[in-house]
Known about the structure:
Helices cover 54% and strands 21% of the residues. Helix 2 packs across helix 7 (244-272) and helix 6 (202-219) crosses helix 7 (244-272). The protein is an alpha+beta fold. The strands form two sheets. The chain has a five-stranded mixed beta sheet with strand order 4-5-6-7-8, with helices on both faces. The chain has a three-stranded antiparallel beta sheet with strand order 1-2-3. It has one domain: Trna Endonuclease, Chain: A, domain 1.
Amino acid sequence: xxxxxxxxxxxxxxxxxxxxxxxxxxxxxxxxxxxxxxxxxxxxxxxxxxxxxxxxxxxxxxxxxxxxxxxxxxxxxxxxxxxxxxxxxxxxxxxxxxxxxxxxxxxxxxxxxxxxxxxxxxxxxxxxxxxxxxxxxxxxxxxxxxxxxxxxxxxxxxxxxxxxxxxxxxxxxxxxxxxxxxxxxxxxxxxxxxxxxxxxxxxxxxxxxxxxxxxxxxxxxxxxxxxxxxxxxxxxxxxxxxxxxxxxxxxxxxxxxxxxxxxxxxxxxxxxxxxxxxxxxx
Length: 282
């Protein structure tokens, strides 16, 4: 049986343990807060001014996007690829889940992707940003995962959200141009509801290839690599790379898609151009 002295010692020990636990809890919370701060508004990536990027005007018209760098409007990379890709899989999926549900999923994913990109852009440039909305709280951990894993090999960056164009052909905005593992690289950020298989992302590779061709043509660079960084809402991170012969092959495939787009636009123009009176006389 405990005497009064033992009881006092026991209570002193309990008080000491409680104090230690509170200190540990406070330390853990501060550690989490510090990590969150590092991930969202740290100093940013090291900036290099090797390339002086020009900006164009961007236009949206009935779901189509164009850019103007002073010599006429150019179709966007995403517009070209969107109009020339096989839509059968998307149509089958819409039929399976229902049109209304498909639109909800698409709109939610689009908003989450926009928020994720804002978090990543703010990290790269060192500008503070936060989004406390439900979409933001979903996108923030995804951006932190990309920062933690995907940005580790990035030594410096040349531009974030860079407008690029290939005169007379196309234009677009790439997420990041950087030095990645010693190679000048085009980086694209993607969010996905589920992990991607490589055969599903051919258009991502062509998008990277088109940005690389535009960058090399206008700025005299030698982009050696494309990196696609993908994260799902449950924080599953994937990375897809293309370089060397693989990147050259994607460039050739992208050029074929550009030809397809131009043919489509030519056919559309012919269908919508009014016939002249003399054409009826021949």
